[in-house]
Amino acid sequence: MIEARDVSVDIAGKRIVSGVDFDARPGEVAAIVGPNGSGKTTFLKALSGELAYTGRVALNGRDLSAMKPVEIAVQRAVLPQATTLSFPFTVREVVKLGLVGGRSGVLPGEDARLPERALARVDLDGFAGRFYQELSGGEQQRVQLARVLCQVWAPLLDGQPRYLFLDEPVSSLDIKHQLIIMNIARDFARRGGGVVAILHDLNLTAMFADRIFVMHRGRLAATGSPQEVLSDDLIEKVFDCRLKVGVLPAGNVPFVLPQSAA
Amino acid sequence: MVDQSIAGPVKAMTSPSEGDRSARARIVILLLCLGLVIAVLLSLTSGASDASAVDVIRDGLFGAMPGDAALSARDSLIVYDIRLPRVILGMLVGAALAVSGAVMQGLFRNPLADPGLVGVSAGSSLGAVAVIVLGGTMLAPLTALLGTLALPLAAFCGGLATTLVLYQVATRHGRTSVATMLLAGIALAALAMALTGILIFLADDRQLRDLTFWQLGSLSGATWAKIASVGPVIVLALAAMPFLARGLNALALGEATAGHLGIPVQRLKYTAIIGVSAAVGASVAVSGGIGFVGIVVPHLLRLLIGPDNRYLLPASALLGASLLLLADAVARTIVAPAELPIGIVTAISGAPFFLWILLRKRGVVDL
Question: Which segments constitute the ABC transporter domain (chain A) (predicted)?
Answer without folding.
Answer: 2-242
